[in-house]
Amino acid sequence: MVGVSLFFGTLLGIPLGVLLVVTKKDGIRETPLLYIILNGLINIVRSVPFIILLVFIMPLTKLIVGTRVGTTAAIVPLVFYITPYLARLIESSLLEVGLGIIEAAEAMGASPLQIIRYFLLPEALGSMVLALTTGTVGLIGATAMAGTIGGGGVGDLALTYGYQRFNKPLMLATVIVLIIFVQCIQNLGNILSRKIRKH
Predict the structure, then answer these.
(1) Overall pTM > 0.90
(2) ∠ CA 52-58-62, rounded to 5°
(3) Average pLDDT, the chain
(4) CA torsion sign, 109 to 115 to 118 to 123?
(5) How far is CA 97 from the centre of its chain?
(6) Distance CA 186, CA 1 (A)
(7) Which of 28-37, 50-59, 176-185 has the highest mean pLDDT?
(8) Do the beta carbons of residue 18 and residue 90 sit within 8 Å?
(9) If you average pLDDT over residues 56-75, what whole number do you get?
(10) CA-angle at 37, arms to 115 and 131, nearest 5°
(11) Could you tell me if 146 and 1 are in contact, meaning their C-beta atoms sit under 8 angstroms apart?
(12) Distance from CA of residue 197 to its chain's centroid?
């Protein structure tokens, strides 16, 4: 669930984050109307708690994957949840790039696409890795909640066999596994980010 949701969320979230930066006021392709629409949509989806989003988009989930329960069904709301979250994180990473770099690129005659590809994204890559790491950790928490619709994974295990059967050792083991998993992902993200920034 985490892998597939993160894959599609990243495919959608990075272009959205780039569009937010490019179309904002004083952006390299300032488009106020598009920015207002994107900004509004992202804010609306991010305002909805995941457990409510999970239930709210069930008809759409059924339309896309043919079912409302199970691991496959959980992926749809997870993608809806993580995409705007990642878009905001990517936007923050891109905004860290100094204006001087963009101005230098424009002075050299680079087109907006060239600025994004050769200047903006490479300069923000280290920060973007950390953003994706943060997004992955947030997604792990959301997948645990997906267990409420029989989404499988650690959340389903903790609810069905731990909480409902009063199996405290299993609940504790689930928490420990999640902590280890999150620590490993965070450490990997930190190492990759440091290596990218050194280059």
Answers:
(1) no
(2) 165
(3) 86
(4) positive
(5) 20
(6) 18
(7) 28-37
(8) yes
(9) 84
(10) 55
(11) yes
(12) 21
DSSP letters along 120-187, please? IHHHHHHHHHHHHHHHHHHHHHHHHHGGGGT--HHHHHIIIIIITTT-HHHHHHHHHHHHHHHHHHHH
Q: Which residues contact 192 (CB under 8 A, 6 or more apart)?
A: 129
Q: Cβ of 118: how many Cβ atoms within 10 Å?
A: 12
**How far from 180 is each of 101, 137, 163, 168, CA to CA, in Å?**
39, 12, 21, 18
The DSSP letter of residue 118 is I
Cα 136 to Cα 151: distance, rounded to the nearest angstrom: 17
Q: Which amino acid is at 102?
A: I
Query: CB of 155 within 8 A of CB of 175?
Result: no
First-residue to last-residue Cα distance in the chain: 33
Of 139, 21, 131, 144, nearest to 86 by C-alpha is 131
Question: Residue 142 is encoded by which pair of tokens?
Answer: 């959301």
